[in-house]
Amino acid sequence: MSETIGFIGLGQLGLPIATNLLNTGYSLHVYNRTASKAESLVAQGAKLMDRPADAVTSGGIVVTLVWDDAALESVVMSAGFLEQLGPGSIHIAMSTVLPETSKKLAAIHAKHGCAYVEAPIFGRPEAALARQLWIPFTGPQSTKERVRPILEAMGAQGIFDFGEEAGAANIVKIAGNFLIVSAGRSISEALTMVGKNGVDPKAVIDMLTSTLFSAPIYQSYGKRIAEKSPPFQSPIPLKDIGLFKRTAQQVEEPTPIANTLHDLLQN
Ligand SMILES: NC(=O)c1ccc[n+]([C@@H]2O[C@H](COP(=O)([O-])OP(=O)(O)OC[C@H]3O[C@@H](n4cnc5c(N)ncnc54)[C@H](OP(=O)(O)O)[C@@H]3O)[C@@H](O)[C@H]2O)c1
Question: Do both 132 and 223 map to the same domain?
């Protein structure tokens, strides 16, 4: 497996995923705005580049995993990026962003003769290291055979093809995160009520998550909340509930639960 992949965005999730690619045998050209975050990868053989465009190999594959829509757009529009990609190459964009951003970027890539594949990720950094990610993806049919083994090498335990329409994979991701955040808040509220009324929250969560709520999200968040482990300190729920609201409101869907969650997360 001698293919060189460009990898841009070595944050909390990018770093373990890029490490998995290296460990699977791919060569990496990496770029990160803060170059020092690439040190561990460079020590394992990755080549650190000065600009996003330098991480791109003409006709090759480049992966981006940056924070949000603005960061993704700034990488794509940075000097030389699209020109360097050119015909036959594929950009696998893995950030959680608005579907409309995906549509816009897919059209810009098509104009440059290259393919835009969106593949947002379900799974925290620990899940990436344990190769337990779930990845929905969308993109031109012609790219799929080439992209699948790369997603597997990144640590996907399951890959779900949502067709060719740009934006679809991010709709899946945003809906999933809305459900995860809703579940976390509901569990917390339920167990507070339970505890304040003198019943053991751990016993309650054990019963519920081994019967009617035997799903990974309820089990992991339930255990954490029942044990009063520190809450996840992450700006991701606020960002992604914002994306959910904007996406729903574009098709004039009211979002009462998302509005409540957004208010709670802001406080
Ligand atoms: N962490 C998770 O558990 C998780 C799970 C599923 C999906 N996601 C999604 O994965 C994506 C990355 O999340 P993360 O947790 O890895 O975030 P993170 O740790 O905050 O890293 C963000 C990355 O984006 C880069 N970046 C930010 N603004 C930029 C800009 N304007 N130009 C260039 N690069 C920029 C950062 O560079 P610097 O290092 O220079 O700041 C860093 O490499 C997000 O879309 C997130 O929603 C995360």
Answer: no
Atom number of ligand 1 nearest to Cα 70: 31
Domain hosting 87: range is 4-164
Does residue 160 share a domain with residue 199?
Answer: no
The domain total for the chain is: 2
**In this predicted model, what pLDDT tens digit does every residue of 55-96 receive, in sequence order?**
999 999 999 999 999 999 999 999 999 999 999 999 999 999
CA of 68, closest atom in ligand 1: 45
Tokens 């995923």 sit on residue? 17
Looking at the structure, tell me whether residues 31 and 86 fall in a common domain. Answer: yes
Is ligand 1 within 6 A of the CB of residue 37? yes
Residue 245 falls in the annotated catalytic set? no
pLDDT band for 1, please (50, 70, 90 cuts). Answer: low
Same domain, 55 and 123: yes
pTM of the model: 0.96
pLDDT band at 136 (very low <50, low <70, confident <90, very high): very high
Could you say which of 146, 164, 182 is where a domain stops? 164
Percent residues over pLDDT 70 in the chain: 99
The pLDDT of residue 209 is above 60: yes
Give distance in angstroms: CA of 214 to centre of ligand 1.
Answer: 31
